[in-house]
Design a protein that fits this description.
about 25% helix, alpha/beta, 6-stranded mixed sheet, about 25% strand
Amino acid sequence: MQSRRKFLQQTALAAGSLLASKSVFAGAANLGDVTKLTILHTNDVHSRLEPFPMDGGKNQGLGGVAARADLIKKIKAEEESKSIVAGGDFFKDPDAGHVLLLDAGDIFQGTPYFNLYKGEPEIKAMSAMGYEAATMGNHDFDAGLENFATQLQHANFPILLCNYDFTNTPMEFKSQPFKIFRKGKLKIGVTGVGIEMKGLVPDVLAGNTKYLDPVENLNRTAAMLKKDKGCDMVICLSHLGYQYREDATRMCDIILAKESDNVDLIIGGHTHTFMDAPVVEKNKSGSDVLINQVGWAGIILGRLDFGFSKLSKNNLTKSHTVLIGKKTSE
């Protein structure tokens, strides 16, 4: 982890290899055809529809859905038209590049837009940008479950949660525990876990929502996705928080990764952690689990590029952190 100031100074399009000294594409002659998946992600946008105002603040000019939408559109156009590597040669192929756009919760609360419109423009903006799935954060309860359920009429993407039981609440049948996305030949399973609401969400707002053990429910869902459904990759959208130094036993993404099985990537939220690159943890079986989170307020768009081949299922080839908007001063 690095300081937010250093992170932003280095971030315009910072890319680096994480798990191997050579790109998986460079070794394609040995691995066979490589299919590329680009995962774009945000978390804790907190109703930041417009860039931060030009008021001399440290975030002035950053963020905003217009700039994010343009960036997402550009990346999708670039990746979906790229060539694939096969036998050391490049050629055009529609299976070459695929993009998956995700959010890890706390869509709501933080600007007057939420106070006035209760989340409608936020959900509409995400739909227009092509988000394919999101999970809930604690602030998404802030206007009550009935409001969140109502705003989902504007969503063309699912809310994924495997550890909240919404029986007898307005959110009953409004979320789902997982979804499988087909990206060319790939099957990508995505699920989500929410944070313990007690102490964060007033009972009157949480209603009859039941919090279930995130490790138990994630592992059950991930095993089904990987073993029964044959997913090439399993992703968890988590709003548990990256880690809590003041309480090492508090459930967080670090603990979740270590106690997980069949999960390849955790995209996190809640702690507003600016990560310069994903962290790698070992799960219960000794396999790698990546964890990533990109701060808050839509300042950063996270980007992870993976390569899939017959011999190498999901190598991370590059990690990018893309600054949204133009920073004019420190």
